[in-house]
Amino acid sequence: MKTLPPGCKLIFADGATPKYVREQIKPYNKEGVLEAIYFKTRKWPNQIRKRVIGRIKSKYVIFIDNDVIPSEGWIEHLIDCAEVTSAAIVAPLYLIGRDPSTDTIHMAGGRLSYQGLGHTRSLYEEHRLSNSSFSKHAPHLLREEVDFGEHHCLFMRTKFAKTVDVFFDGIYAVHEHIHASLMAKKHGMATYFEPKSVVTYCAYQPLRIQDRKYFVERWDPAKADHSLVKFCEYWHLVDDGHCFEGIRGFVKRHQRMGQILNTEGVVPESRAFVAKIKASDVANSRSELFALAMSLGLTEIERLRIDRCCELSTVFMNGGYRPCGRPFVNHLIGAASILAWHGVSTEIICAGLMHSLLQASPLRGDNEFSKTVAASISRLAPDSAHIVAIYSQWQRRLKRYPYKDPLEVKRIVDGLTVLEAKATIVLAADFLEMCLSGEYLYSRRINEFPDEGFILFLVETLKALEMFQFAQSLIEIRADTARTLRKASPIHCDARNLDQLYSYRYDGATKSPMIALDV
Known about the structure:
This protein is an alpha+beta fold. It has helices at residues 19-30, 45-52, 74-85, 134-137, 158-161, 176-186, 212-218, 221-235, 245-258, 286-295, 300-316, 328-341, 346-354, 368-380, 382-398, 406-414, 418-436, 439-443, 452-464, 468-487, 498-501; strands at residues 10-14, 34-38, 60-64, 68-70, 89-96, 105-107, 110-115, 122-127, 144-146, 153-157, 191-201, 320-321, 504-507, 510-513. The protein is 46% helix and 13% strand. Strand 13 and strand 14 form a beta hairpin. The longest helix has 20 residues, at 468-487.
């Protein structure tokens, strides 16, 4: 708002966005700084544009997303370009990063090319200077005609924007921006690129848990495919199997960012009526985990990814044992199977398989071996690596979670990022595995047993993700384990004996605790 020149009217069009967004906008709406328009049901961006354009009385209109930060003078430069060139659409220079300090170009106007002839033509798009250095290229960028801009920030003549089919109902998930520029060309008008107008697309801000459901729906591959079909029908194009690879990959990557459940497989119907997971449901070996993945209908690629992560965990945890005497890797396999049983995505299952690798390195800290472990995880499963890193930071600190007031915990959960929520799911599986395997009972680690605040945090996070069965399992199994621990005889373990309290390794015949205790 600081970069808006006098006389500009700002309209916030809300298509049933998360509550916290509305709370942030409310003060500005009351002060008259902007006009808020709320839709009762969720709308696609192009549907909102079509419904709002009728309210616009000015000569020009700018459509800008809520994750874009403009620079000083951005509007003035866009207007100047439109006045001088008579363009129907003007696109600014788009940067991409966490904030305006970024030096990375997202796009300096777009180019289109065709392959084939007549009704067999396919359309290919290109983002000019994508991922290039802004400081390097800025002095050489010129105002010029391009083939398209993007709706991150798109300037239009209002008269053109009100033209029939500029915001076509059938094209709503992807390629709306290309459709708009093709419509301008159809009416004998141009799209221009204005390099002096600079905006930053804050694509690398972490995705929050409250945004997740909206985000996953926004980047639904089926909806994107529907839009591409309608796009091809409208412009008499064909999908040759390659022309839309880029946009389809973009959509899938975005949906995966917010994905919690595994869409590749199917949870057996018999499980839908099971109240909680049992010890017999937990895999104790690599073959049992593989059989579980098969029974869930995971694809061969997903099963192979899980198997490779299991192999990596076996290599790095070789020679490590849990307090109860079983190989350490069995615990990781068990945690992964609990995650798989509850139907989570493969990236989270793989994170479960590797969740202790960073803490359990023989030489913990800033050393070459730890770097090797981290690099191996990132190379094998980059999506899972971020979850493992967060888990490693949180695991010990959260065992004594300080918040016990449900309202306070709910507020904290609402502020989580999706990656933090995924790490919390792994924390829940780690805890359940130690309960179901009898590890807490054997070691009598009463002082290490998570308190109610920690469990409340786990439960509230699972509920926020609509994983109610997982949350119920956590509540009931924690209660069962706590009762058993209170009744257990001290013969299970001498609490002063560290051999039975913590994970360990053998150096020859010498038994010693692993560096990362209690993982």
